[in-house]
Amino acid sequence: MLSLPRSRLDGPPVALPPALDRLSDRWWSLRPRHRAIAVVVLAAVVVLVGPVRLVASPHGPPTSVLVAARDLPVGHELGADDLRPATWPRDLVPDGATTEARGTVTGPLPRGGVVTSAHLAPPGSGVAAAVPTGRVAVTIPADLLPPLPAGAHLDLVAPDPDGMPRVAASSATVVAVEGELVWVAVDPPEGPAVAAAAARGQVVAILRPP
């Protein structure tokens, strides 16, 4: 327990600034009932300050949204604990925001990100929901590639029958990382060559800028 020297407790009381001293005198001159009413009014003002600030925001009135409670990977099936309600200014809410989210995550959704219809596919879609239209997904062992997040763009190089390096897939996209496997979206004609090279353990990635 904190104790003060006796010398600090003896002597004259601490002098307050004049304005604060006058306010203190007025406060204690009020009747107990009036002081209680003042405390209730002050508490009500504190409670109302937050909503009033939101309403007065230059970005519009408050709007209810759902945000990710944690980082959600591609292919994840939404559960009860994955999302939480939040309030955002209306003009900052992205298009397609939904308050009835269910299904499969189609793109990386970081913690705190607003859930939109573009992030979701029907339940049970799995990784297939993240494969762009007109492309196919091939798995590559993670130990053949550098650490890559979903959404990374790369070229895949593999040896041809003569052992010379060639581009097996250009403008490939990582759509999901599942444990020891990396799902990569490529053009359909490139799929067999990439799959064969991955099976032989002979794939090299050239990272492209975002």
Can you characterise this structure?
- The chain has 3 domains: 32 residues; 65 residues, Antifreeze-like/N-acetylneuraminic acid synthase C-terminal domain (Type Iii Antifreeze Protein Isoform Hplc 12, Alpha-Beta Complex), CATH 3.90.1210.10; 77 residues.
- The protein is α+β, with helices and mostly antiparallel strands.
- The strands form 3 sheets. It has a 5-stranded antiparallel β-sheet with strand order 5-8-7-6-9, covered by helices on one side.
- The chain is elongated, with a radius of gyration of 31 Å.
- The relative contact order is 0.11.
- 24% of the residues lie in helices and 26% in strands.
Short description:
The protein is an alpha+beta fold. It contains 4 helices and 9 strands; from the N terminus they run H-H-H-E-E-E-E-E-E-E-E-H-E.
Shape: elongated
Which residues form runs of ≥5 with pLDDT under 50?
none
Domain count: the total is 3
Report the average pLDDT across residues. Answer: 81
Radius of gyration: 31 Å
Question: Sheet bearing the most strands, described?
Answer: 5 strands, antiparallel
Number of helices: 4
Strand order of the largest sheet: 5-8-7-6-9
User: What order do the SSEs take from the amino end to the carboxyl end, as H and E?
Assistant: HHHEEEEEEEEHE
- Terminal CA distance reads 58 Å
* Helix vs. strand class: alpha+beta
Number of strands: 9
- State the share of residues found in helices, binned by percent: 10-25%
